[in-house]
Design brief:
The chain is an alpha/beta fold. The model has no long low-confidence stretch (mean pLDDT 93). The protein contains nine helices and 17 strands. It has helices spanning 27-50, 100-115, 133-140, 162-174, 177-182, 217-235, 302-320, 354-369, 372-379; strands spanning 4-6, 16-22, 56-64, 67-69, 76-79, 82-89, 92-93, 96-97, 123-126, 153-158, 186-197, 200-210, 240-244, 257-258, 270-271, 326-331, 343-348. Helix 1 packs across helix 2. It has a domain at 162-271: S-adenosylmethionine synthetase, N-terminal domain (GMP Synthetase, Chain A, domain 3). The longest helix is centred in the first third of the chain and has 24 residues, at 27-50.
């Protein structure tokens, strides 16, 4: 049964819980988003031209912050941020030369334009090179199931706790197009930190504002108060405290002002893998993988596939059995079929009947056999990786 194990019960969290989400405009999330967009566009090009996805890993992206002077009613950009693209991709296939740098740069430009609603300009340099021969060999071996190109593990859990869901939902709500139309001063760079202390939850938010939409400090203070009231109305205030831009120094006229809506405009850098995990949040009280899932190839890089697959497994086990909260950890071995992990460990909240244990093994086995569905979901952008 593909080395599937069921562990003892999950130990429930105690009186303290921490959860974080870096919003899509945070420099680390921007790096993740670019890495994944480049991978997706390369995959689509390979599929269209050659009928298959060729070996690549574009998970090395650096966002080098620019220089800006922000001020009420509108500042200016002195130097645009720099995006450095690195990693590996198949360049030559027979006599065909793949324009990897052009594909990568075009994907990056479009991603930045869409993300920042045309309000951000960047410089782009591409240093994507050819893949190593040993990894390309593992990738290219003819087999009905791809071989793992790394010894690594993926981990996830389902469902979210109330605080995890709250943190995730708040960032998505604040970054929504609908709210931005009402409050264009809301920038894309938003970080939400949630701390549950016994029965009280404290939500601390860093929200970059677009300075041209704020006339003065009083306008800024009013804006902050409005956002907090909107959050209370949307998500409730019972046993939840909201804190917004706590680094502000109102007496010195200092607030979180930006020209473009992101701190990457003024020296705040970003790297792939330093932000949200593949399930969209950072959870120091729950199992996490340190893998940078964004940008890795979606065919046989288990550092990507297993993090999504473990979430799919945990979700289906929770929804279809009496397991309760479910945690899944999957370990690969390089060179082995990706549907035959060295270990797939499943831990559940509730005691399991024999029938539930059998169903859990069946769910896990079925997902391993259908792991190519994960590849399709990633390439078709049906699943987020950060």
């Amino acid at each position: 049964m593909k080395n599937i194990y069921i562990s003892p019960k999950i130990i429930r969290q105690g009186e303290f819980e921490l959860v974080e989400r870096k919003g899509v405009g945070h420099p680390d999330s921007v790096a993740d988003g670019i890495a994944q967009k480049v991978s997706n566009e390369l995959s689509k090009y390979y599929l269209k031209k050659f009928g298959t996805i060729m070996h690549h890993n574009t998970d090395q992206v650096e966002v080098v912050g620019g220089h800006a002077i922000s001020k009420f009613s509108g500042g200016e950009i002195i130097e645009d941020p720099l995006i450095i693209l690195s990693g590996r991709a198949t360049k030559t296939i027979g006599d065909e030369i793949v324009p990897i740098h052009e594909i990568a740069k075009e994907a990056t430009e479009k991603y930045i334009k869409d993300l920042f609603r045309g309000n951000m300009k960047v410089k782009i340099e591409s240093f994507i090179g050819e893949g190593s021969s040993d990894l390309k060999d593992v990738f290219d071996r003819k087999n009905s199931m791809p071989f793992s190109n790394d010894t690594s593990f993926g981990v996830s859990f389902y469902p979210f706790t109330k605080v995890e869901q709250l943190v995730y939902d708040i960032e998505n709500f604040l970054n929504s197009d609908n709210l931005n139309k009402q409050y264009p001063a809301i920038g894309r760079d938003i970080k939400v930190m949630g701390a549950r202390i016994k029965d009280n939850t404290k939500i601390t938010i860093a929200l970059a504002t677009v300075d041209k939409y704020i006339e003065n400090m009083q306008d800024y203070i009013t804006f902050k108060d409005q956002i907090v009231e909107i959050l209370k109305e949307k998500f409730g205030s019972c046993e939840v405290d909201y804190y917004l831009n706590t680094a502000d120094d109102l007496e010195r006229n200092i607030g979180f002002l930006t020209v473009t809506g992101s701190s990457m405009e003024n020296g705040d850098d970003g790297s792939v893998g330093r932000g949200n995990r593949a399930n969209g949040i950072i959870t120091p009280y729950k199992p996490m993988s340190m893998e940078a899932a964004a940008g890795k190839n979606p065919v046989n890089h288990v550092g990507k596939l297993y993090n999504v697959l473990s979430l799919y497994m945990a979700r289906d086990i929770y929804n279809n059995t009496g397991a309760g909260e479910t945690q899944v950890r999957i370990l690969s071995q390089i060179g082995k079929p990706i549907n035959e992990p060295l270990a797939c460990d499943i831990a559940t909240e509730n005691e399991l009947s024999q029938e539930d244990q059998k169903e859990i093994r069946n769910i896990a086995s079925d997902w391993l056999d259908n792991i190519k569905q994960v590849t399709q979901d990633i390439v078709n952008e049906k699943v987020s990786l950060f």
